[in-house]
Design brief:
The complex is a heterodimer. By secondary structure, chain A is an alpha/beta fold. Chain A has a single domain, classed as Rossmann fold. Chain A contains seven helices and eleven strands. By secondary structure, chain B is of the alpha+beta class. Chain B has a single domain, classed as Mth169, Chain: A (2-Layer Sandwich). The chains are: A alpha/beta, B alpha+beta. Chains A and B meet through loops of A and helix 1 of B.
């Protein structure tokens, strides 16, 4: 698809200790031809981007709890406001941890049950992609995708009531799975409750996921399934009424 | 006046604690067969200023609620005491 006029523009938040911001920016700019702006956590303004990325890493050294300090960074007030306005926001890995600490998504991410850092390719079952058209519009319910994971604290926990409510509302959108799509104990890399790898907020604009879509955007790195989330965003932006005004 | 708070952050009952389990296994392998459970947690000692005991108590409660413990999986408890050493030092210099 040829883009005319303005290109999608993403803001990628950088905390002290973030490590995936350049990968996200590389994919946005070099692979997709978008614009990407790295926004330091001490800034107060996002600059009205089309979407916000909270990338992976170890913000503030993961001290106290992952994401616990980052959620109080000045930029987070702007991120929370953007979330309230319906701006698409994705938090991957450490970004997911920050989103839960900030209360933008329920639950928490804790130390992997086996206490090891896990860096691997992981199969994921996609569920209820309609819950987040902005991030998952190009994916199908029940399909299996393959993305890298890279974390020591990815075990999703929430009380039973919250887990039931998330599932009832169709807000669990990614689960750790075997290659064929079966969600099994063996396929779960960190002990996450109910195999949960990704969830969305009620409105569907905020997606938190432990896997790294930005690390699966070119064949030469082993896969391109991550690109499909970003292409979902591109298409969603083009379909928004405001996109006409912006020339998307 | 200066206060010292000792804040204990513990995992809620029912939240799996792989670190505690691993420590428990290590203790058992050292021969402590009587160990049935280990739960890990965090200890933070915080020195701060407050006018009186009620104000100090309220401040610690607020610190725990806003930052020190995540209610999703943790609980916080604390012991609070006036920093006597600091106070006597102030009296001398004052």
């Amino acid at each position: 698809m040829t883009l005319l006029g303005a290109r999608p523009r993403i803001a990628v938040i950088v905390f002290p200790g973030t490590w995936s911001e350049r990968d996200f920016a590389h994919v946005a700019v070099e692979v997709l031809g978008w614009e990407a702006q790295l926004v330091w956590h001490a800034e107060a303004e996002l600059g009205e981007p089309d979407a916000v990325v909270l990338p992976g890493g170890f913000a503030h050294g993961d001290h106290l709890r992952t994401g616990a300090i980052a959620r109080f960074s000045p930029i987070m007030a702007a991120v929370e406001a953007a979330a309230g306005e319906g701006v698409p926001i994705i938090g991957s890995c450490n970004g997911f941890q920050v989103l839960t600490e900030a209360g933008l998504l329920p639950g928490a991410l804790m130390r992997n049950d086996h206490l090891e850092f896990r860096c691997d390719w992981q199969w994921l079952r996609v569920e209820q992609p309609r819950a987040s058209p902005a991030w998952l519009g190009e994916l199908s319910d029940g399909e299996t995708i393959r993305l890298p994971i890279s974390h020591g604290e990815g075990r999703y926990v929430a009380d039973e009531e919250t887990l039931d409510a998330l599932e009832a509302a169709g807000r669990v959108v990614l689960r750790y799975a075997a290659a064929g799509g079966a969600v099994t104990h063996e396929a779960n890399p960190n002990g996450s409750a109910r195999g949960i790898a990704g969830i969305v907020n009620e409105r569907g604009n905020v997606l938190g996921m432990m896997p790294h879509p930005e690390r699966a955007a070119e064949e030469e790195v082993g896969g391109t399934d991550g690109l499909r989330l970003l292409r979902s965003l591109e298409r969603w932006l083009q379909e928004q009424p405001a996109a006409v005004e912006r020339g998307l | 006046m200066r206060w010292l708070a000792e804040v204990h952050v513990a995992l809620r009952p029912g939240i799996a604690d792989p670190e505690g389990q691993t420590i428990g296994s290590a203790l058992q392998s050292l021969g402590y067969d009587s160990v049935s459970e280990v739960r890990s947690g965090k200890l933070m000692r915080i020195a701060f200023e407050a006018d009186d005991s009620a104000g100090a108590e309220a401040t610690v409660a607020d610190m725990c609620r806003r930052l020190l413990a995540n209610p999703v999986m943790e609980t916080a408890s604390w012991e609070l005491r006036a920093d006597e050493e600091q106070q006597s030092a102030e009296t001398v210099t004052g």
